[in-house]
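Changelog-adjacent note: as of this version, every example in the card shows the full chain rather than a window. The one below runs 251 residues end to end.
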Amino acid sequence: MSAATFWQLSPAAMALAIAALLAGGLIRGYSGFGASMVWVSCLCLVLPPAAVVPSTLLLEVASSATLAPRVWPDVHRPSLRWLLAGALVGLPAGIWLLAELPVRATRLAVGLTVGISALALAFAHRARFLPGRATSAGVGTAFGVLNGACGVGGPPVVLMFLASPLPMAVNRASLVVFFLAADLMTVGTAGAGGLLTAAVLAQTALFLPVALAGVAVGNRLYRRGGGDVRRIVLGILTALSVALVGQAVFA
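Full-length structure tokens:
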């Protein structure tokens, strides 16, 4: 039986989904990361993960594609090679988990991942050196498993770049291009696993313009040099984590 999608939601749940799509897009356009954590966390409150994760992956690809041409010159290419190699290793296991885990277990996994990620981002410190090849590949593998299973594989890679000694513009550019390439691989794996159903694709077509509108606004704010939204992002992620864990445990 196919998973329920946006079309089966109540009007209130639809409004929550639309607001989440806008908020996630805005954060993505501004910081270069964070959208999938907001999208998956919010949408999993009203939809099963098997309907949410494939749509989120497609939205991530579209969001990254709109940003990548502008940031391409700033990308740190050596790191991306090993991160993507690791992601390719971890993806099949993650997609298998998404297909096999019960809805409650997946929601709990998403909630815990987002909560731990928010704490890690809050206490991240800059390092003096970039990780080596083996560490970068390991981070990529962790991304592959988490992204395939939960659609929130970004935190390990985000932490790696935020803790790096590279300039923020290079970190942001590297994250944008990494997510584009890695999410394309994840979408291909999900399609091979039969998760890109017609209902999910139709749902994504509805979500896309809303998410991209948020990305455009966020990117404009970044280019104008707006304020630091890190604390707001962390607060949102913490609240979403509590809501998801609570729903998984007590629902």
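Structural remarks: The first helix runs from residue 11 to 31.
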